[in-house]
Amino acid sequence: MSFSDLFDSEFKQRNKGHFSAIVRVALADEKFAPEEKMFLDKLAVRLEISQEEYAEILENPLKYPINAPYLHEQRLERLYDLVRMVHVDHQLGDKQELLLRKIGLALGFTAENVNYIVDKALSLVDKKVDLDTFIFEMQNMHK
């Protein structure tokens, strides 16, 4: 296996883990809204998830671990995707919110601040901010 193959394989595994986490959030209320399905379809393309992988992840979203990115900005990007999935059907159920906080911890946010981070993220996505604004606001929320 070449170095580039190893990198590609690791990249694909991270994307599958991220997509799997988003599917878990989408399924937390045990049903897909049409908007959630559309969001998942677009995200699968962006994350280079094949149709076979998509079906496999939908069948068993716990198969892939959540791989927390090393860089804080990448964690925020993943959080942005997750919060948008929760927000897409405009109905934050208790299960979705709890799962979002658990995934926030798995992404590397601390137990002391995960509630505040998730609440801030939800309020920003509610305002329909883009990714750049989201990252800026999240990085500067205490200033």
Strand element count? 0
Task: Please indicate the percent range of residues in DSSP E strands (runs of 2 or more).
Answer: under 5%
Largest sheet: none
Shape annotation:
globular
Tally of alpha and pi helices = 7
Distance between the termini: 47 Å
Instruction: Spell out the helices and strands N to C.
Output: HHHHHHH
Rg calc: 15 Å
Oligomerization: single chain
The chain-level mean pLDDT equals 80
Low-pLDDT sequence parts: 1-7
Given helix and strand content, the structural type is: mainly alpha
Helix content: 55-70%
Description:
With 143 residues, this protein is mainly alpha-helical. The chain is built from 7 helices and no strands. Helix 5 crosses helix 6 (114-126).
Quick synopsis:
The chain has 143 residues and is mainly α. The chain is built from seven helices and no strands. Helices cover 69% and strands 0% of the residues.
